[in-house]
Design a protein that fits this description.
Oligomer: single chain
Shape: elongated
Order of helices and strands: EEHEEEEHEEHH
Mean pLDDT: 90
Largest sheet: 4 strands, mixed
Structural class: alpha+beta
Strand content: 15-25%
Distance between the termini: 21 Å
Radius of gyration: 21 Å
Helix content: 10-25%
Number of strands: 8
Low-confidence stretches: none
Number of helices: 4
């Protein structure tokens, strides 16, 4: 059973085990969100600790990628994860990242300009645009937020 750990603004920071959530609650580093359902009660001879599905850390913590825009720097590993390691041109397994607008022509390493790519398509496209190489993108590059799916669940649990 996983517990959502959020900052005070309800942005997900991590998914923790009930043991880690209990540690955060006992040390006072986090508090339960009363509107979230209780998922476990931990008992000792002297006390009982209810652990809710969503807990919030007491101090404000930064969430990576929360302020990413299409024009901010994107790491290659995040691009491969975003595109599920599927080539944006042919759909084959991808191991590299390609600049849609080549970096030699001013294309940056941004969310909007990078796609996962197989080595065959990457070498065929080379330093050309997809149109010049006669290739079509199967996806639209976008900003990747690894917590987006879980964030909806948190909002549903606490509202």
């Amino acid at each position: 059973m996983n517990i959502f750990v959020t900052n005070p603004g309800l942005q997900i920071l991590a998914i923790a085990s009930w043991q880690r959530a209990a540690t955060l609650l006992v040390t006072g580093d986090a508090v339960n969100l009363a509107s979230a359902p209780i998922v476990k009660v931990v008992r000792s001879p002297s006390t009982a600790l209810a652990i809710h599905r969503v807990i919030a850390v007491q101090r404000n913590a930064f969430r990576p990628w929360s302020n990413a825009t299409p024009d901010t720097y994107a790491p290659n590993a995040a691009i491969l994860t975003r595109d599920a390691r599927i080539c944006g041109y042919c759909g084959a397994p991808a191991a590299t990242v390609d600049h849609v607008r080549p970096s030699s022509r001013g294309g940056g390493s941004t969310w909007r300009n990078l796609v996962a790519c197989c080595s065959k398509c990457n070498s065929h496209k080379a330093a050309r645009t997809p149109q010049e190489a006669g290739m079509a993108l199967r996806i639209t590059p976008r900003v990747y937020d690894p917590w987006q799916h879980y964030q909806r669940q948190v909002y549903e649990l606490v509202t």
